Amino acid sequence: MSSAHLSTPEGLGSVFEAPHLPAGFTDTFTSRYVDTGELRLHVVTGGEGPPLLLLAGWPQTWYAWRLLMPALARDFQVVAVDARGVGLSDKPLSGYDTGTLARDMVALMDALGHQHFAAVGHDVGMWTGYALAADHPDRIERLAVAEAAIPGLSPTPPLFGSREANDRLWHFAFNRLGDVNEQLVRGREHLYFGHQFATKSAKALPDHAIQYYVDILAADPEALRCSFEFYRALDTTTEENQQRRTRPLSLPVLAIGGTENLGAAVGATMRLAADHVESLVLPECGHYPAEEAPEAMLAALTGFLAPYRDRPTA
């Protein structure tokens, strides 16, 4: 275990002040800082078994996994991370392309003493999960992904597409703007991010969860800036993915979609990149399966990860 844990994370964003956690959550999980040598990342860790890295999506934090983490911790050492720019992690000016984000995760798991691990990624976390598996195939044993298209891999939608497509994807162009997006959203974080959560979920997320995500983004101008940096880096990420798709993934992949959002398109995307893809569509679920359909999501992950969980230890 690395000795580079600098202090105990406190305040908004830490496990100690997160609202409405499952009963006994803090008996198993704790917040900690990990210094990777390049930056300091906030992680929530706990459990026993082989390591499992959880990568949340935009505009969420580790908290997105809270409903799954207690059950997963019975079988795995769970590492729920705030990526660079997110939550209590460092917020550098650059490094938001998925190649850099994947290197961050390898450095994190190195610091935690995990040479091999499985990963689960949602939304932007799915982008990073794909980059991890493509760029560091010797590190990842199994990859589960949920609810994202992958720039440079998925077909690019037309600018003048259907109203439904525009309603789902308009934030991509907005988020990539240089700075006017920050000026427009600052002070109106609940309007903008609340709209994202409301329009992309089939089952409404709890008010306390939305408020928690929004409060974290509103607490620090750098947090708002960083929330857009993942999208501002899309030219680089797209170029990286166009190279990655020439090297198909050989590891097992589980692709999860919600019937009320991307559905089977998640599996179709991953079949462009991997040889062994299992696709699952969760009924009555939108863009946030870990929060909208936690029992179904947990059952899917439990079955998919069973061979990894039960592997003989060296």
Automatic annotation (TrEMBL):
Transmembrane segments: none annotated. It comes from the Bacteria. GO terms for molecular function: hydrolase activity. Pfam families: Abhydrolase_1. Keywords: Hydrolase. Residues 50-294 form the AB hydrolase-1 domain. This is Alpha/beta hydrolase.
